[in-house]
């Protein structure tokens, strides 16, 4: 299933929701965005972001009394995999090798290199 594109602001909101988990109170989202990501958005702006995320199929919301809650519908891992696949296809002409090379260029010590080789062997089998 092709997920709809998110703006950079919507990505931050989703990351915050995924970090929290299910049944996130709207007020908690407001606080976490400010505290964890330095985003001091007004309540109405955040509600608009959440509405757009709901329209795009990423979240669902519900109310209990005067409190609003948010649940994600798309798993973070699914989103990350799709985004990485799009990046690989666009920037690296579908070469996973070139993408991995860019990600780890000069950053692999002996232990990490062995783990990566083992992972590649498992994938190849």
Give a nutshell description of this structure:
With 125 residues, the protein is mainly alpha-helical. The protein has two domains: 8-72, Arc Repressor Mutant, subunit A (Orthogonal Bundle), CATH 1.10.10; 76-124, no CATH class. It has six helices and three strands; from the N terminus they run H-E-H-H-E-E-H-H-H.
CATH fold field value of the largest domain: Arc Repressor Mutant, subunit A
Runs with pLDDT <50, length 5+?
A: none
Question: What is the strand content?
Answer: 5-15%
Order of the strands making up the biggest sheet: 1-3-2
What is the typical, i.e. mean, pLDDT? 90
Alpha-carbon distance between the two ends = 27 Å
Q: How would a textbook summarize the main sheet?
A: 3 strands, antiparallel
* Helical residues, percent: 55-70%
* CATH level 1 class label of the largest domain: Mainly Alpha
Please trace the helix and strand order, writing H or E for each element: HEHHEEHHH
So what's the overall shape? elongated
Number of strand elements? 3
Q: What's the tally of helices? A: 6
Q: In the CATH hierarchy, what is the architecture of the largest domain at level 2?
A: Orthogonal Bundle
**Overall number of structural domains:** 2
Please identify which CATH superfamily of the largest domain we are dealing with: Winged helix-like DNA-binding domain superfamily/Winged helix DNA-binding domain
- Give the structural class: mainly alpha
Q: What's the Cα radius of gyration?
A: 18 Å
